[in-house]
Amino acid sequence: MTTPEKFKALAGPLDNEYVKQWKQDGGHTAAYFCAHAPEELFWAARILPLRVRGSGGGDTSCADQYLSAVNCSFVRHSLDRLLSSDMDFLDAVLVTNSCDHIRRLYDILNSKKQLALCSYLDIPLVNSSDSRTRLAAQLRTLKNEIEAAFRIEITDDKLTKSIALHNRTRELLARASQLRSARPRLLAGSEMLAMSVAAASMPKDQFNELLEVRLAEVEASAEGSGGATAPKRLLLMGGMLDDPAYVEEIESFGAVIAADQLCCGSKTFSNLADENIDPIQAIADRMLNHPACPRMLCDYQTRLDDLLTALDEHRIDGVICQRLKFCDLWGGEAVMLRRSLRHDRSVPLLLLERDYLTAGTVGQLRTRIQAFLESLD
Ligand code: SF4
Questions:
Q1: 355 class by beta-carbon count within 10 Å (0-12 exposed, 13-18 middle, 19+ buried)
Q2: What is the dihedral of CA 78, 320, 263, 310, to 10 degrees?
Q3: Which of 74, 194, 251, 327 could form a disulfide with 244 if both were Cys (CB 3.0 to 4.6 A apart)?
Q4: What is the model's pLDDT at position 59?
């Protein structure tokens, strides 16, 4: 299996070869749902942090006992996986108030799933020095909960080493992201998404080794001509998207995803934690300083400025903003983006609404993409 194929496989169901080996070696695992997660804290306790995905399942009959059809399909599929025996390798779950759909999971999992730890983090909705201090205080409480539940001591030294390891992962992914923009024929947008999803599905030290091999391969390769006309360069943004197959569909028309602003993509590696301050405060600062999503209040202008900077930096021809049905956060954001991009700046924008599992949406997706790309000519 080539390294790109390996990343794609690791972006599939979570019970992959690395997780199985980790459990066989007596390791513990902890699941989380959102880019606002203190991975470094779990890893410092030698607990493998894993970002939950709803892929690998079929219907949501189990989850539908607790959630309605107008709840986010990512949340419904994820809950269905979590309540099934397929995710019995999980020892802990961290739920955050990323949105109301995810927050609801805490009540359900706390009463329905046998876990060593089921914890909740109230992530502030504004980024300020007070809110970062408040988040750090919550992380100290979570640290105590982890130490009590797994009878382990999390020292500052372990935290500092964990931060350094996770920063290394972010630096490598940022390098891959630059390569994707500079040489999209060698490192496609679908592979970039598979990489960042795989990074949250296995031990970071082993992931870093895999990615270093792949980066060396790409940097040593010569990029072919790629045809007479330069491909259309797109930026892909929006809510939960963890399936590389969705990006492959878009790129199958010859366009390239030269950049992204996805919460499973560049938002997971756009900033580093400070290795020279109190490690818990460093983790809190990184969690709130990373490029924001629509859950953050009074922050739209910052998000828009970040997007406009990315459009120039990556020479983008068009933006695709995809969101899951019933995702109220991205529903509101899409309305503002339409005004900001289409009317104020005449940047071509395609708004797509979808279900979580790609399989069911390919036909409609292909029609919309084809029409959008033709409009860019
Ligand atoms: S896609 Fe939207 S509704 Fe679903 S979990 Fe993310 S923010 Fe919440």
A1: middle
A2: 170
A3: 194
A4: 85
Structural domain boundaries enclosing 126: 13-154
Of the chain, the end-to-end C-alpha distance in Å amounts to 38
Tokens linked to 345: 């700046």
Handedness of CA 360, 366, 371, 375 (dihedral sign): positive
Give the pLDDT confidence of 262-311 residue by residue, as tens digits. 999 999 999 999 999 999 999 999 999 988 899 999 899 999 999 999 99
CA distances from 331 to 36, 68, 113, 271, 303 (A): 20, 18, 31, 26, 15
Binding site membership of 329 for ligand 1 (Cβ less than 6 Å): yes
* CATH number for the domain that contains residue 99: 3.40.50.11890
Domain assignment present for residue 250? The answer is no
Ligand 1 site, residue 324, Cβ cutoff 6 A: yes
Among 52, 327, 353, the mutation site with the greatest number of ligand 1 atoms within 8 A of its Cβ is 327
Query: Tens digits of per-residue pLDDT, 228-273?
Result: 678 999 999 999 999 999 999 999 999 999 999 999 999 999 999 9
pLDDT band for 226, please (50, 70, 90 cuts).
low
Tell me the residue type at 222.
A
**Mean pLDDT rounded to a whole number for the chain:** 94
Q: What confidence score (pLDDT) does residue 360 get?
A: 64
Q: Which of 53, 95, 99 to mutate to test the pocket of ligand 1 (most atoms within 8 A of CB)?
A: 99
The number of folded domains in the chain is 1
C-alpha 351 – ligand 1 centre gap (Å): 16
